[in-house]
Amino acid sequence: MSKRVRKVVCFGGGNLVPKVLLEPLKKYPVQITSITSMTESGGSTGYLRKELNVLPAGDISRHLVGLSSASKWKKDLFYSRFGKEKFPGGHAGHRFGTVFISLAEYVLGDFEKALKVTHDFLEVKKHKALPATLQKVQLMAELENGKTIEGEDEIDVPKRHNPKLKIKKVFLKPKAKVYPKVKKAIVEADLITLGPGDLYSSTIPCLLPEGMKEAFRKTKAKKVLICNALAKLGETNNFSVLDFVREVEKYMGFSLDFVLYNIKTIDKRLMEEYKRDNPSIVIVGQVKVNKNLRKPKFVGKDLLRKKGKDFGGADLIKEIFNLCKL
């Protein structure tokens, strides 16, 4: 990799991206901007959003921990849960990080100020975690039967609609504009990654604000999709690698340069481990690998979690840098 500091933009949700990309990326001479959708509506985040009339802070708080250079106790504190409130989906209590940012916005009256305070507290120095938009929005989905459902939480874990129905399209209500700092980061980037994470409730919502497609048209960055290994009930039933690519390129308004996809069979132990960690999510199998995927755009690798290690890490970063010649 060149010694020049590269600018990397990472799109995605709050669970996988911090561990898979942000933490290992920090060890390289890069400047990272991570982007989250700001459409969360369930659990503790959704409760605080409604109670305090603030922006949802769950995903972005996780990204900030992933980018943090602070002592371990601060990171552990941000992930700690407290309280006895019960939320749909099996979650109990509030995460300190979500409460910290939500209350900071409530007291300061400004999400940008709250974000600055949090960057300082977690000692996030040369990197940034940014919202795709600063406007308060709901994620909407139109199903194949013409019905429209509202809320990221209902798309993520269906409770009031048939999860076997395919999602025809997703959109924001009301329409919202891209955060100018995000647009600038995209235009100036050397590398842009998308995923891994829930397709319609995590990755694609980041691409929905108006002005995002214009930023992708202007950037010279290499664009890399890290395709999910697992298909999820309610979002990606029977999806193949090409299905993921088609949807991401549609909402991005631009072609991907590279697609990394998993070729390793997921064993029973790993599947049980995933189900234990994500009790509310129903996995319906592995994402199908299409025949004769065109090289060099499509790159098949073992992307599964190794024993004692998190999925991704240094090997994944090296692969991406090699592909993009960074």
- DSSP strand (E) fraction? 15-25%
Unreliable stretches: none
CATH superfamily of the largest domain: CofD-like domains
The name of the CATH architecture of the largest domain is 3-Layer(aba) Sandwich
Here the CATH topology of the largest domain equals Rossmann fold
What is the residue-mean pLDDT, rounded to a whole number? Answer: 92
Cα(first) to Cα(last) distance is 5 Å
Describe the structure.
The structure is a single chain. This protein is an alpha/beta fold and 326 residues long. 37% of the residues lie in helices and 21% in strands. It has 13 helices and 14 strands. A seven-stranded parallel sheet has the order 5-2-1-9-10-12-14, with helices on both faces. Strands 7-6-8 form a three-stranded antiparallel sheet. A two-stranded antiparallel ribbon has the order 3-4. Helix 5 crosses helix 6 and helix 8 (180-188) packs parallel to helix 10. The chain is globular, with a radius of gyration of 19 Å. The N and C termini lie close together (5 Å).
Q: What's the arrangement of secondary structure elements?
A:
Elements: E1 6-11, H1 16-25, E2 30-36, H2 43-52, H3 58-67, H4 72-79, E3 81-87, E4 91-95, H5 96-108, H6 111-121, E5 128-131, E6 138-143, E7 148-150, H7 152-156, E8 167-173, H8 180-188, E9 191-194, H9 199-203, H10 212-218, E10 222-226, E11 230-232, H11 241-252, E12 258-262, H12 268-277, E13 283-286, E14 298-301, H13 314-324
Parallel strand pairs: 1-2, 1-9, 2-5, 9-10, 10-12, 12-14
Antiparallel strand pairs: 3-4, 6-7, 6-8, 11-13
